[in-house]
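I'd like us to work through together how a protein chain folds, taking it slowly. We need material for that, and I hope you will provide a protein of your own picking. Go ahead whenever you are ready, and we will take it from there:
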Amino acid sequence: MPPALTGGRLLLGAAPRRYRPQVAERLRLFQQLQDARERRAGGDADGGSPPVGTPIRIALPGGRCLHGRALQTTPRQVAEQLGSGLATSVLVARVNGALRDLEQPLEDDTELELLDFAAPEGRAAFWQSSAFVLGAVLEQFYGATLCSTVATEDGFFCDAHMGDRTVQRSELPALEDACMAFARAQHRFERLEATREQLGELFKHNSFQLQRIQEEVTSPTATVYRCGPLLQLCRGPLLGHTGLIGALRVLTSSAAFWGDPTERRSLQRVAAVAFPSTQELEAWQRAQDAAALRDHRRIGREQELFFFHKLSPGSCFFLPRGAHIYNALVDFIRSEYQARGFCERRRRDPFPQTHELPGPLQDDAHIFCTLEQLEAEIGGCLDFVRTVYATLGFSFRMALATRPDGFLGDAATWDRAEQQLERSLQDFGEPWELSPGDGAFYGPKVSFASRCRGRG
């Protein structure tokens, strides 16, 4: 039986009896595989790395260099050497350009960058780790089957299969309390590299994870993390332990679906946000309250610009004032777009064999050109976006999203496309960030996040 609700509080007892043997079995196998891995790591390094203990050079941003030992020195030890303040704030590391856990030993001479919550990569790792906490609570106290844990630009969410059970709004505060109790227990995040066969054994009781393995794992091995009783397929990196999560707010619970539209397996999606301290959570809440005052749905309604209807939730109905503004914007964008010689822009994919699944709506732009024309066209697109945003009083930040797991096509073509986008961004001259693995399955992309100047 799932936990009961009494006076707005969850009765968080033991997990359902039928669930315990599965948890014990998967944790026992995880530990066996972890022990075998550590025994192998105890010998000399292979694959071209120096022997264990060999002196290595660690280059830090700004030109400072430290000395370490191959397969012994970890990024966390480097942070501790640099000072207690950094050691308590750093979350993940960039090692020779690749993101790593702080506990993963350095293998040879290294360019090392230590990242905290202020860095997008550090924030993503923090929220992915927080999603593990939420997922563990959903499994442990609701008897749910966890499907996925996802970090987003604004927080994180978990999708879980709970049968006919739903998470009620009145239960969210108690769910919050359970998550923070789990976080305070300082569960470690343990990383394991496993073969596809081992992954199949670890997740044999979870059909959702088995499907993810089949669809997403294209290499001989993949990483799985343990956090307390939870195991989850995850690329990482993650935090050292859950105690670094100082504050967590559960925001919403809604329906979601697994797989293609023909399956329609019903899930619960629970969304949340977390921060290293309660002060940061409070500052976030103040920003949310301020943003609510600028909510376009409220403004559109109060200024009689447009309204929405449940029969067509993805598109608004313009009133006369709103139609005037809309037409003026369309005329402006059309003139700017045509002035740059782009060949076509459509709201829908022009190819009839494309089928759009239910979900967020988006405007698509399609440009047909040769490879030789690609650099100029991308540059023109970037200039177009900058001109429109500047005219409307918006600033923006950009990110280059690269090849994800489960991509289509060959790696060489992906590399060429990513290099082209990177060159165009460098030539563009505006700041941008790298978002590894966040590209679409069919190609890399440059994403824009905008905000109104002077309003945060």
Q: What stands out?
A: The two ends are 46 Å apart (CA to CA). Residues 129 and 424 are 33 Å apart (CA to CA).
